[in-house]
């Protein structure tokens, strides 16, 4: 098979089965289709809320999804840069390792769940459990996030330009959360912390990377672990 | 210590309700203010495989010659959707146990032993280690709620994927790894601070319920190119419904773990009081598969059963009740050298004894198996441990074959419920086989012949 050139390739999800599309994006050979170079940009049309769109990629590819997607879009992404020109369902960029995912609309629950690396930007709102069990990813949400976000968040940064729902950062480990608006309530062991110069600098870098460089980092509040629940002790039983 | 006979002669009688162990538990709780955490599975007496017997061949059945006629043991797992199903030489697999709970050398030994015997081993909470991958011909990669160490590179290296919803020791409970075992390497693999008491989630972070699971399974297939079998593991509580839902969600293999199944660290009250015995779980799981038309079919869904498998007789009984394979955990650790009498003095020194040690959460295992202490771990030889496990797996297999031949079966999976009777009413009701010497299956109407 001849590899296509680096000009953008369009794949129509209304005509090409998802299994074939994902295989091509992952660089697998598919009978009857030209293989894609590792860096060939791709536009996916007619996603129509399909699940598992553009998952498992490990190439420096630019992928644009022209529409809304269902669950787990760009799941376990490595190195690819994915733009979703619509809303995303549950678990967008779940377990992402590197690369980036930009959701132009809103994201459903568990956005960026367990992700280890890369940058997830949601320009609209993200629902409950945003950044749940995050393990190193950076997440920037243009709007607000729902309840139980950053639950058991282990590492990485979560930036929220709007408000946060109830039980933010419950049982958080070493992830850092920055919220500009109000927080409905903090979860167990999550506390507000001082914004030191390194945090202002870190936040400015994240906002710039997400395209929100006009925000004043000083208008945000930092939240993180009080580390009182790191060792199980009977005196903390009421906190669980 | 008091001698029971002496006490009885003095007219002293222990309470059945407040027996010495219960009194000790109350005293411990009052002293420490915290519940007991331990490893292992349920210790209470439960209806189990010991309560079943095989009806060997006689006038109406023809046995196979013990040392001549072939009795197959191979099993294929996950051919329903996967391009590369697992082809195992024996129907005994090694269950998931984490690096973290176990040392890297112990994980390596499990891989060595399983590979030598032609079967699979399984990762655990905490990710895949190079030692384990390197020594395991067939490695099942667990996909757990915590997603510790989960990454697509390891997912692609796996031979099968096991989505874990629960385990028999604690259906509905998450994991626990206490600070003394969170070494620098374990912490790094789990992205956690070193030395903290770590709690693994009990629910998956990005899906809830069977409909979501369908989508999650489809995603994992897309990521791995539809190459690998996908298992769903449940702790035995409502196996009839859980198995049906798992099959509907797209599982290629369902793993049902009974309450005798072990754990590295869980509250004793959880281990002893939540879940149902393995014996009770198997017929329910098999019924679910049969009603869906996927039991023992070429493109069907296979059932792996675990929780208290110790002997080839246990293996044979599980298969006769309808399992396609079994998994061993605790028994595999014993085969490696866990609770070996040669360490008895050291077990005694830490308040236990050889044959009783279950404080896997403490990380002070004298045998060097359930520890992250470098000095203790160095005591354990993974090559020797692997050889011992392979020996044990072979014995289990030969024992199961011995029974299968006696029942006239040319393959161990040809064993069937009709080959079994029960010794107790409870076991008969759970296993759905007659009480020995009768035609009575509790709960079933009328004579069967």
TrEMBL record, chain A:
SUPFAM superfamilies: Alpha subunit of glutamate synthase, C-terminal domain (SSF69336). It comes from the Bacteria. GO terms for molecular function: oxidoreductase activity. InterPro entries: Glu_synth_asu_C_sf, Glu_synth_lsu_3. This is Protein glxC. It comes from Nocardioides zeae.
Automatic annotation (TrEMBL), chain B:
InterPro entries: Aldolase_TIM (IPR013785), GltB (IPR024188), GltB_archl_type (IPR043578), Glu_synthdom (IPR002932). GO terms for molecular function: glutamate synthase activity. One of its GO terms (biological process) is glutamate biosynthetic process. It holds the Pfam family Glu_synthase. Residues 111-123 have a biased composition (Low complexity). The keyword Ribosomal protein does not apply. Transmembrane segments: none annotated. Residues 81-337 form the Glutamate synthase domain. Keywords: Oxidoreductase. Residues 110-136 are annotated as: Disordered. It comes from the Bacteria. Belongs to the glutamate synthase family. This is FMN-binding glutamate synthase family protein.
């Amino acid at each position: 098979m001849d590899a296509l050139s680096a000009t953008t390739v369009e794949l129509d999800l209304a005509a090409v089965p998802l299994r074939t599309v994902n295989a091509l994006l992952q660089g697998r050979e598919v009978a009857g289709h030209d293989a894609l170079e590792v860096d060939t940009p791709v536009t996916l049309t007619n996603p129509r809320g399909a699940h598992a769109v553009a998952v498992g990629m490990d190439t420096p590819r630019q992928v644009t999804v022209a529409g809304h997607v269902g669950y787990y879009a760009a799941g376990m992404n490595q190195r690819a840069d994915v733009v979703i020109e619509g809303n995303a369902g549950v678990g967008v960029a779940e377990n992402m390792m590197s690369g980036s995912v930009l959701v132009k609309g809103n994201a459903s629950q568990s956005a960026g769940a367990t992700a280890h690396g890369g940058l997830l930007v949601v320009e609209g709102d993200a629902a409950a459990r945003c950044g749940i069990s995050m393990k190193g990813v950076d997440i920037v949400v243009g709007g607000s996030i729902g309840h139980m976000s950053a639950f058991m968040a282990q590492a990485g940064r979560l930036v929220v330009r709007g408000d946060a729902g109830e039980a933010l950062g419950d049982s958080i480990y070493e992830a850092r959360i920055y919220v500009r608006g109000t927080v409905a309530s903090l979860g167990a062991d999550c506390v507000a912390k001082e914004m030191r110069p390194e945090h202002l600098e870190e936040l400015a870098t994240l906002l710039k990377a997400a395209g929100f460089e006009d925000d004043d980092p000083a208008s945000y509040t930092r939240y993180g672990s009080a580390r009182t629940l790191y060792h199980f002790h009977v005196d903390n039983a009421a906190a669980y | 210590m008091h001698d029971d006979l002496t006490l009885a002669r003095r007219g002293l009688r222990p309470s059945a309700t407040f027996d010495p162990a219960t009194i000790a538990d109350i005293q411990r709780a009052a002293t420490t203010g915290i519940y007991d955490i331990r490893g292992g599975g349920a210790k209470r007496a439960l209806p189990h495989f010991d309560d079943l017997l095989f009806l060997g061949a006689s006038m109406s059945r023809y046995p196979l010659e013990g040392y001549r006629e072939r009795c197959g043991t191979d099993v294929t797992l996950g051919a329903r959707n996967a391009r590369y199903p697992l082809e195992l030489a024996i129907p005994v697999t090694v269950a998931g146990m984490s690096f973290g709970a176990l040392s890297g050398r112990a994980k390596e030994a499990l891989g060595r032993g399983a590979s030598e015997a032609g079967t699979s081993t399984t990762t655990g909470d905490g990710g895949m280690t190079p030692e384990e991958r390197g020594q395991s011909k067939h490695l099942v990669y667990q996909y757990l709620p915590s997603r510790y160490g989960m990454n697509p590179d390891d997912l692609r290296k796996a031979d099968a994927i096991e989505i874990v919803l629960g385990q028999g020791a604690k259906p509905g409970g998450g994991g626990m790894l206490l600070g003394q075992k969170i070494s620098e390497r374990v912490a790094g693999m789990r992205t956690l601070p070193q030395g903290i008491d770590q709690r693994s989630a009990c629910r998956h972070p990005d899906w809830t319920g069977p409909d979501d699971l369908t989508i999650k399974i489809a995603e994992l297939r897309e990521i791995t190119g539809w190459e690998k079998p996908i298992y769903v593991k449940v702790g035995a509580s409502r196996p009839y419904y859980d198995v049906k839902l798992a099959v509907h969600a797209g599982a290629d293999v369902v793993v049902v773990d009974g309450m005798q199944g072990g754990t590295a660290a869980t509250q004793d009250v959880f281990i002893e009081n939540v879940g149902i015995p393995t014996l009770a779980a198997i017929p329910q799981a098999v019924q679910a598969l049969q009603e869906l038309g996927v039991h023992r079919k070429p493109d069907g869904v296979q059932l792996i059963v675990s929780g208290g498998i110790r002997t080839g007789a246990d293996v044979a009984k599980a298969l006769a009740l309808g399992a396609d394979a079994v998994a061993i955990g605790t028994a595999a650790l014993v085969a490696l050298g866990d609770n070996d009498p040669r360490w008895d003095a050291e077990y005694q020194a830490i308040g236990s004894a050889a044959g009783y040690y279950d404080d896997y959460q403490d990380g002070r295992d004298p045998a060097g198996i359930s520890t992250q202490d470098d000095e203790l771990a160095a005591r354990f030889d993974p090559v020797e441990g692997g050889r011992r496990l392979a020996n044990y797996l072979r014995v289990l297999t030969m024992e199961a074959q011995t029974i299968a031949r006696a029942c006239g079966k040319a393959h161990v999976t040809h064993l069937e419920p009709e080959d079994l009777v029960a010794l107790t009413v409870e076991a008969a009701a759970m296993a759905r086989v007659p009480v020995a010497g009768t035609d009575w299956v509790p709960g079933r109407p009328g004579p069967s012949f």
